[in-house]
Design brief:
heterodimer; A: about 700 residues; alpha+beta; 7-stranded mixed β-sheet; 6-stranded mixed β-sheet; 29 strands; about 25% helix; about 25% strand; flat; B: about 325 residues; 4-stranded antiparallel β-sheet
Amino acid sequence: MPDYSWPPMDQRKVLGKRISRLDGNAKSSGRAKYSSDLNPPGLLFAAMLTSPHAHARIKSVDTSEAERLKGVTAVRVISKAGTEIQWAGTEIAVVSATSEPIARDAVRKIKVDYEVMPHVVREDNLANVGNRAKAAGEQVTGDPEKSFGESDAVIENTYSIPVITHCCLEPHGQVIAWGGQKLQFWPSTQAVSTVGGDLAKGLEIPATDIRVQMDYMGGGFGSKFPSDRWGVECAQLSKASGGKPVKLFLDRATELTIAGVRPSAFAKIKVAAKKDGTITSWQSQSWATGGFGGGGMPPIPYVFTKIPNIRLNHTAVSLNAGMARAWRAPNHPQASYLTCSALEDLAAKLKMDPVELFDKNADLTARPDVYRSQLKKAATLIDWSKNWHQRGEGTGSIRRGLGLGIATWGGAGHASKAKTTINPDGSVEVELGSQDLGSGTRTIIGMVAAETLGLPLSAIKVKIGDNSYPPSGPSGGSTTVGGVSSSTRKSTINALVKLMETIAPSLNTTADKLEAIDGRLRIKGSPDKGMSWQQACQKLGVNAISEMGENDTKRTEGLNTGGASGIQMADVSVDMETGIVKMNKLVAVQDCGLVINPKTAESQVLGACIMSVCAALMEERIMDQQTGRVLNADMEFYKLAGIKDIGEIVVQMDITPEHDKKGVIGLGEPCAIAGIAAIANAVANATGVRVPTAPMTPKNVLAALNSGRNA
Amino acid sequence: MQAFEYANPTTLQEATGLLSAQWGEAGILAGGTDLISLMKDYVETPKRVVNVKGIKELGGIHKSGAGLRIGSIVTFDELMENAAVRSEYPSLIEAVRGVSSPQIRNMGTVGGDLCQRPRCWYYRGGHGLLAMDASGKSLVPNGENRYHAIFPAAPAYFVSASSLGPALVALGAKVKLVSPSGNREVPIEKFFLVPQNAQGRETALQANEILTEIVVPTSKGAKNATYEVREKDALDWPLATASVALTMKGNSVGSARIVMGHVAPTPHIAAGAEKFLAGKTISESVAEEAGKAAVADAKPLSQNEYKVQLARVAVKRALLHAAGMKA
């Protein structure tokens, strides 16, 4: 078996280089066509009717008037009479028509009679949710009571972070043409190789009848794995319309209402330490909702999992609101925010520098040395020793503060198969049924193949986004880079070995004595004995080489693994009169094993930092108990940061020989965890008061300042 | 969006002839930054859309002895770049800067800013201007009212969305409204109204009228400024604003106009603060006291008490800006 291991750090020609993404120009110029941009000939538009009620039973649906509208090609009822609706925005019926205006007009002509039922859509006050609360069993480690009694310092506070949505810029949806046996499916998905099978199940047809293609997608963040009801309905509309292509994408309001949310998290936390800062005990009563499905407990205490005495209680709250979907590091940002807030409060109580507290307790984590080293690196980048002060020591109407957050993630590669083809003319292509979520997957596949073959990146054609290519896993859990880099490495080495076997006789040697470097195949140790890449490929005659490679998740051969760590530190200024928080700087130190492309990796961390600024300062789904609806299902009051709001962001990929030898580790999620905690702690440090409720809006900051002042 | 007839008149007379005496028949399109979103949400469903951007006489900014005449289709950008406005009315410039989207400043017009509908999410969600439930009760007092009025005027709890309104009220501007039957000039503080019932409107504009121009009297050296408090620096609605115009007598204030925005269904004149300031020399503490006087009679709703403080700070900071003392 060939040696698939990564080349040593100092011998890499392509890996580890800062390379701009292959599709950057296409995307920034608009030439890149996303699925929602596709307008195949004969295209029909679909629109969906959704429930205005949060909880109701459908008594009747009358589509006759919609069906009679000129231009309407098909009408389908999704929620039939008798169906119990559990959240506003539930899909009721769908219409396809020759134009978008006709489809939207037709939807408004559908008459639905509802029996409206009582709803609960807010969980902030647990006392008001009644039987929607479901307690999970208590978990106890050690002897919390005894330990709290013997501790030197205890803090107890309640912290909360609301439900937020994925808010994908390209909403959920697809174009489908289903004429004859074959169904052509152009989705916006994180799962090119599996979404077709999922749709097939919904349509009760063989998965082999579905061809999935997607070149570009505009954001998923964990919410775009299934084919969804709208996928199934889009297919049925196409079939009912004689196989014409139908486009069904959610409108903005529906996107923010039913296409997935990140669960909220509320927790009353008590933490104790010895005088020297050693954490001894943790107790928390938490609750959360992710909509109708309830909400699990975030993994608290986060990272510091080896606290000897722990008592955990959690209550899941089921609301009449759209369901949760995975949201970039499911439950980790919430857990980091809750834990780091409590630990920073503990540090303040001890009058201790929180960096020192984290460092002191690093042995309570799974990776003490990594965190200690990252704390130092981040502190240097933000000039912590110069800029940090004891909580509340700032003066004046604008006060500056520093805070920190911590992150952990798995991120081992998913199952992935790749096919590398070397043609007699020297051209090379790599095919995978993978997808590029904007993280640079295309680019890193090309880089791995180029490195392996000793060719420039421009010599490699990367083909992804098609389920006719070898299957590759869905992009979730930060598993893509590990999966596709490993499968690409293996398929490309397998192809290279074949090429070497073909040419070895003409060099009077054997394949195992050859190497591919700088566009040449040559004998190891005798650089002048060899031939150019082109000459070598010509020896293939008419037959191309085409070889597979697989990332076997049980046997990754050192190519990829899991276990990423990160520290983020924030520097903010708070206007004490208005409660407005301004980002000065956010520093992210992040390891992810072997970093294939530092430039795209940093980009991914930058994006995560911006998401953290949004969630920390402004982002919140606002439910109205009276109407049962989302009030800010738009991009006006569902607030996201603009360029002026994000401050300076400094990313340092933690690239070291120790991390590198672990192989490739996923990055998407670990970097999206610690920022909220860092910003919230910086606000507490600046103002002298814990703002217990995220986001840190003027409303929440002033409420905390005023209650702090009155205390 | 409901299908509509599109009219593209080139004269004012032609345009007013295309309007109707009844609301809901015709919609006036200028920059379209509000009308189009209202139509997409079916909050407004005009049968005819009348584009007024092609009417030359509605454009331009002209200075005369009486002051400045600003055509209603002048865009935010044009206003911001006008030398006369820049030199005499920094308050307007600061108000325009608050519209923190280059796209909206490029498209949005002065007239559109004054005539835009409130952003109340119950209104935009189809519950009518007064945000009523099926029984006719307002959803706002017991609902999500963090962005609503702190000077509510039941049955109206929304806030006026106009960015320029408070500044123009402070500067004593008038608006000219033209209908097929003639024209009228209305002092801008009387242009903004509190609707009394579900059929009411929040401005004096009639269904068959077009707002053609704004006349801002010469400032006569009055110091003026606007200060906005927004959650975001990027595009966002203000939480509270204050516009002030101070006529000075030597170093002290002769008379003051103080108008708060985004705190009431209309730009809200802070009469108490105006009275307090007369004869005072602006200082940090005087501005602070004026801020307190401005919100003394605020009646915040269940979730928006924080806006009282924001309005107070906005008044204080606008005064300090006007007096050349950076807050």
